[in-house]
Amino acid sequence: MEQNLLESEPLPGIVQLILNRPAARNALDAGLIGALSAAVARHGERKATRVIVLRASGTAFCAGADLTAMLTLGRGPHDANVADAETLAALLLAVRHCPKPTVAAVQGPAFGGGVGLAAACDVAVGGEEALFRLPEVRLGIVPAIISPYVVEAIGLRQARRYCLSGETIPAARARELGLLHEVVPGPMLGGEVLRIATELAAGGPGALANCKQLLAEVAGHGPGEVLGRALAIRLAKLRAGEEAQVGLAAALARRSPGWVA
Questions:
Q1: How many whole angstroms separate alpha carbon 146 and alpha carbon 130?
Q2: What is the pTM of this model?
Q3: Which CATH superfamily groups domain 5-201?
Q4: Is there a contact between 102 and 93 (Cβ–Cβ < 8 Å)?
Q5: In what order do the strands lie in the sheet with 14-19?
Q6: Residue 148 half-sphere exposure, CB side, CA atoms within 13 Å?
Q7: How far apart are CA 38 and CA 153, in angstroms?
């Protein structure tokens, strides 16, 4: 039986998790969601993993939820229906809160849950052929689980348009909206993603995890005295830590710290 998720490590510490249901355009069924959640959790804890890249086999990044499964779940017991939806919510949270930087490499279509998966990553890079859609309302449902990530990525005003219309968003427009950080010719996608992953891996492992947590905590809060005091204490504590001492000393000595290959 073919694996629904593949793993590779093209460079030391840079792990690629590859959605591998190309015949189904990498639609998110229970098996793939479970495998991806477990892999993200495992590599989040694995010391040797520095950056996680989400990629996909075939011509599509992710077609969203498996429609056959959704139809069946809607006809079944309510508790089972809710439990299934919660697995996608848990996956996106795992990606967002993973202590390692995450990068989405989007080739071809990314619909529904595929949009959410890209938006949940720290960085998203697309090929020129990438296409995004939020088609849920055309299916009689709403983009419930992915909505916080979509609104965060493109803002509420733009989310109103694209969540309500279900229209296609080309790669160039996705970059304008903030859904993608970069757009490159398709053949260059893999190389550009590895370049960005290498830049991310240059940060201290603890600093990267702390930075992700910091940004999540300050989002939505304007500067203020109480927050400023809390951030000062946070910086002072980190400065006294071993990783910062190593990194600062290495910079002064014009050499690489131990975490950079």
A1: 19
A2: 0.94
A3: 2-enoyl-CoA Hydratase; Chain A, domain 1 (3.90.226.10)
A4: no
A5: 5-11, 14-19, 51-56, 102-106, 123-127, 182-184
A6: 9
A7: 25
